[in-house]
Design brief:
By secondary structure, this protein is mainly β. It contains one helix and 34 strands.
Amino acid sequence: MFQPAAARPKLAAEYTIDQSTETPTTASKAANRSLFSIVRNDRTGFIDSTGNVVIQPEFSGWYTGIRFDEGLAPVTLGHHWGYIDTTGRVVIRTRFDSAGSFSEGLAPVGIATKRDGNALDDFQYGYINRSGKLVIKLQFKETHGFSEGLGRIVVDGKWGFIDTTGKIVIEPKFRMAYWFSEGLALVSIGDTMVYIDHAGRVVSNPEYEYWPTGFSGGLAAAGKDGEWGYISKDWKFVIEPQFDQVAERFSEGLAVVRVGNKCGYIDRSGKMIISPLFDNASYFSNGLAPVQIDKRYGYINKNGEVVIKPVFVEAYPFKGGLAAVTSNENVNRVQCCWPHWDYIDTSGRYIWKAEK
């Protein structure tokens, strides 16, 4: 749940395995509500925050689960992929062998150029618009979502960026690249992480280490001499490096930090608001945060008080009024286990129990 900045694995898509929240730009009321994926008999459907099934479990998709972005979710339709809306209606049918989530009105799709029965290999990827029209031709070995008008692509093993017309605007030359946030993106040049601007220029201070999640609210996690704090966009520390680990960003005004073997929470001035008492912790949402106490997870409020007892083997932050939890010892946080999670509300009451 809480990982050292220096050891953070690559964040290619940051899929939340338990929840699906529509973009606020979606017009209809249905598309603005939070939906939560459920599984019955290996098929996925969705419930609302009250536990009512609003899309029957009849769809399949990626092993990481089905999620909505910008009001649409990719699902398999026979041997190909399509998209459903938040009522469960199929609104896009395609002939593609692969399809991803929409971002800024575009979604990556792909076709395998090598086939051996059901085995597909050597994909070529491009992008479709919300009408299902291919608007960026199939040409890339790997594609990811758009952010601030730029999409990440991979050519000959190197990462770069294209604009929404498919034109390469930052040449593929990076070992790894993350999405743009507040005008900057973190990329890897060899073993070194640096920030670039929209022109592809390196703008960050080379003396610091960086955590690959980018700027949020004008701050980003940065390390120096083995300790971590937060910097502003002028590359100066506004919270001096003093912690063993820090969270990727602030949420509801607080961020998790680790001091020794325990986690606590600081505010944006760096003041310790909730003392480091927890074995592990995650971010606040809906006024609550999951924390680990004696190998079990519960939830605290912003006063540091335990309001949902630590009885769960694993627990996720709340989103849209529900949180994914499990008491199953055989379930871990890897994405292949996502069908086996339960949902609770902010009082700790079970709203949905997973299929056993």
